[in-house]
Amino acid sequence: MRVLVLNCGSSSVKFAVIDTKTKESIASGLVENIGVNGHTKAKGPEGKIDFNFDCPTHAEAVDQVKKFLDSQKLTPTIEAIGHRVVHGGKYIKSEKVTQEVINYIRSITLFAPLHEPAHATGMECATKFFPGLPQVAVFDTAFHQTMPEKAFLYGIPYKFYEQDAIRRYGAHGTSHRFVTAEACKVLGTKPEETCLITAHLGNGSSCSAILNGQCVDTTMGFTPLEGLIMGTRSGSLDPAILFYISKKYGKEYGTIDQLDHLVNKESGLLGLSGLSNDMRTLTQAASEGNKHAQIALDVFCYRLTREIGGIAMALPRIDAIVFTGGIGENSSYVRKQALENLKILGYQIDDERNSQSGKESNHLITKDGTPKAIVVATNEELLIALDTEALVK
Ligand code: ADP
Q1: Please, are residues 72 and 25 in contact by the beta-carbon 8 Å criterion?
Q2: 276 in ligand 1 pocket by Cβ < 6 Å?
Q3: Reported confidence tier of residue 2, pLDDT bands at 50, 70, 90
Q4: Is any atom of ligand 1 closer than 6 Å to the C-beta of 7?
Q5: Residue 81: beta bridge partners?
Q6: Which of 12, 140, 203 most suits a substitution to test ligand 1, by most atoms within 8 Å of the C-beta?
Q7: How far is Cα 362 from Cα 345, in angstroms, rounded to an integer?
Q8: Pocket test for ligand 1, best of 220, 280, 281, 357 (most atoms within 8 A of CB)
Q9: Does the predicted model carry a pTM greater than 0.90?
Q10: Residue 282 CA: which ligand 1 atom is closest?
Q11: From the candidates 140, 217, 319, 387, which is the catalytic residue?
Q12: What residue owns the CA closest to ligand 1's atom 21?
């Protein structure tokens, strides 16, 4: 089946056409700067596009995706649409898109203010521009719904959970779920008998503890801000820091919006280094002696180890640590530092395997006879397409 996978963000629409049989991406691209100065870039079997255009709302963006697919002669071949949804609230698995699902997604806007309205609008636009095609919503939080109460509750008055559903939901669930299945193939084990730590390290980063194929803890929380140090997000911090900064720097950081911006956009690797949120830039700069780039790397890697250590306590054993995401798949530096920090658990990196991202050693980057760490490429679009196929067939 050919599935159009749509990822509607606050100011962008990313898309891919996936063939579930071959597991190949046939076309992909994005429309960005919606509402500002629209720009699209895409490639498909008939060629590439890259231009600016007037794109005031998501409707024009989805219309542009449709025009591109028309130009590539792909539209008639598409049988279903799968949507990536950042926050699924109550949903524990993927769902067929209905008006009820769209309404529910809008109703939890407060959980992910930038994403949920965009997802709901994206589904309505898809209905308009691709009439008659079945649609499925795949939620980034769904995989984490197997966490026990002791792992998902916060130490705040219980009424906030009862009245407002404030709890940990986690994120990147589609990636953690995909790499769990892939890791089991690599290890030659059954998911229901496998215990893993999955580390999705990209611009946003999170780790999950997987017990017999199911998530039992994860580092992201009520929103994707908690846990690891990320590109521009602070990860976990003492909330009292915000009270202090707000009182002391009222002009710059006095409002909730300013504080929101501080911890989501000005912090993490960017904030610590004062240089960049990009791991490649920082690794290069640190190797040339940039002190602040090195500090950012050290904090990133140490926090990663500390969080892995924390969620590992949810497991009886670790069959493998699985690295994925842009950093997890490509940064031999981060993987080496993280595993060296985890020496207490016996990890011994094999430098040659690590430098090849495990490509020559069936994904393995640790020495034979020592605990396993592997590198697995994530593919969220493929999983969204496969879920879509399973639900619409
Ligand atoms: P997103 O969360 O936006 O999907 P990605 O998973 O693509 O992000 O990860 C982006 C991060 O991966 C960036 O910090 C980038 O520097 C890093 N990255 C990509 N390639 C490499 C590489 N070869 N070495 C180190 N870091 C890399």
Answers
A1: no
A2: no
A3: very high
A4: no
A5: 4, 135
A6: 203
A7: 22
A8: 280
A9: yes
A10: 16
A11: 140
A12: 330
To test ligand 1's pocket by mutation, which of 330, 337, 379 has the most ligand atoms within 8 angstroms of CB? 330
Backbone angles phi, psi at 27, to 5 degrees: -150, 150
Neighbours of 150 (CB within 10 A): 9
CA-325 nearest atom, ligand 1: 6
Q: Is 140 a catalytic residue?
A: yes
Asked if residues 320 and 373 have their Cβ atoms less than 8 Å apart, the reply is: yes
Return d(Cα 72, Cα 100) in angstroms, integer.
Answer: 33
Mode of pairing for the β-strands spanning 47-52 and 39-44: antiparallel
* Average pLDDT, integer, range 72-92: 96
Query: Which of 224, 239, 244, 331 is closest to 284 using CA atoms?
Result: 331
Q: How many CB atoms lie within 10 A of CB 343?
A: 11
Which two three-digit tokens encode residue 329?
Answer: 């798949």
Percent of the chain with pLDDT over 70: 100
Torsion of CA 387, 381, 325, 101, to 10 degrees: -60
388 lines ligand 1 (CB under 6 A): no
Distance from C-alpha of 33 to C-alpha of 49, rounded to nearest angstrom:
16
Convert 376-389 to b/e letters by CB count within 10 Å (16 or more is b): bebbbbbbbbbbbb
Give the pLDDT confidence of 205-252 residue by residue, as tens digits: 999 999 999 999 999 999 999 999 999 999 999 999 999 999 999 999
- Token readout for 163 is 């009245």
With H, G, I as helix, E, B as strand and everything else as coil, classify residue 24. strand
